[in-house]
Amino acid sequence: MTFLSPRHNRTRLLPTLLATGAMLAATAGAGRAADAQASFTPAQRQEIVEIMRNALKTDPTILSDAIAALRSNANAAQQNAARSALESHRGELTAPTATDGVLGNAKGQTTVVEFYDPRCPYCRKVLPDLDRLTRENRDLRIIEKVIPVLGQPSLIASQALVAAFVQGGQEGYFRMQGVVMNDSVQPTVERMRTLATQAGLNATQLVSDMNGAKVTSILQANMELARAIGLDGTPTFVFNARQIIPGAVSYDDLKKAIAQNH
């Protein structure tokens, strides 16, 4: 078996090492049951190990290059999976449901979906930027989907927001959002009762609806869609079902992504 020198043709050596490593990993687990002709001999495996060891001693950057290549491949695979998921759920990500809060132009052609947790500090911080974006872009609509991912307090706050929508539609939802997202007190059912009163809603009805079938089904649908697109944190933004940006993001980055996915 012929191998390249570790001092030369590093661009070609890297994929060779990665491929060899993959073959060794495969033969280690399956070689005992495979055809002997398809396996390396012990002497060949030892030769491979020695060459890899010497290559890493001579040029340690090979390892960092290999790690970078593996990360790049993982990122590419993740992006491909994300694109596939977005395409599969395009309808759900480009048109609001009857129970989604919508900022901006409800009939706008540029759609951003925000998945958010009302207890998430980054979700709270980005609210003024979302308002600003919809003021500046009259063709923009931002669909808000509440997902409780931060434990029981988040679930209580999320239930209250959806119950506010069930009771008062868009207006009731945004009034409740205004008090919930600016409240520093730990969410409890009684606290939601107080905030509902502050928002001008029927507090008794809201508390009753929080654990009702309609609120539960809305939150479950939001969570199922979030899982389907591989969401792993809040906030997460989806732009015209083409691009996902997870986590905290600046006003300028949001504006740029909106322009790119118009």
From TrEMBL:
Domain spans labelled Thioredoxin: 75-262
Keyword presence, Nucleotide-binding: no
Superkingdom of origin: Bacteria
Family annotation (SUPFAM superfamilies): Thioredoxin-like (SSF52833)
A Pfam short name: DSBA
Signal listed as a keyword: yes
CDD domains (UniProt xref): DsbA_Com1_like
Protein name as it appears in the record: Thioredoxin domain-containing protein
Source organism (scientific name): Komagataeibacter nataicola
Molecular function terms, GO-annotated: oxidoreductase activity
Signal sequence range: 1-33
Database matches in Gene3D superfamilies: Glutaredoxin (3.40.30.10)
Keywords for the protein's UniProt record, in alphabetical order: Signal
